[in-house]
Amino acid sequence: MDSQIPVNGRMYTLQRLLGHGKGGYSYLAEREGRLVVLKQIHHEPCDYYTFGNKLEAERNDYERLRLAGIRIPELIEIDAEAERIVKTYIAGDTVMERLQAGQDVEAFLPQVREMAKKARAAGLNIDYYPTNFVISDGLLWYIDYECNDYMDEWNFENWGAQYWK
Fold first, then answer.
1. pLDDT tens for each residue of 97-130
2. In 10 A of CB 45, how many CB atoms?
3. Where are the domains of the chain?
4. What does the pLDDT look like over 122-159, one tens digit per residue?
5. Which of 11, 41, 82, 147 is deepest in the core (most CB within 10 A)?
6. For residue 78, which of 17, 7, 147 has the smallest C-alpha distance?
7. C-alpha to C-alpha distance for 21 and 63, rounded to whole angstroms
8. How far apart are CA 49 and CA 150, in angstroms?
9. Cβ of 139: how many Cβ atoms within 10 Å?
10. Which of the listed CATH numbers 1.10.510.10, 3.40.50.10490, 3.40.605.10, 1.10.8.60 matches domain 3-164?
11. By three-state DSSP, how is residue 7 classified?
């Protein structure tokens, strides 16, 4: 891949696609020897989700999650004009990768439940789908910044837990 992409005038080298979600494409990128995630916002239609300003949502959701005490990668920079976000890269397997490999993720349920408790205390739900969580050095990280106002039907026990089996 090795494409050069500017973010606020600084060049990043894209190494590979990490994933494609409702809001954008996330790439493993490198700048000055540091690995990061570079997310390019997209405007593809999504049948089940309505968006406002995706970039502002990312910025606001990052702050809401940070203040709630949810373990998330650091937001490094935002390029509003190019609709790009750079955040810390958390190396490790996603919970989904572990599940698909037939591995048990039960040991990480206390950590996701603790995140759910913190989210609820802050009036939030996070997206509990297993692709949004990375396991690194025994710690569970919520690598997406998406969060919404709390509703019982979308909490971990009522929605997310079914995907962690």
1. 999 999 999 999 999 999 999 999 999 999 999 9
2. 7
3. 3-164
4. 999 999 999 999 999 999 999 999 999 999 999 999 99
5. 147
6. 7
7. 20
8. 16
9. 12
10. 1.10.510.10
11. strand
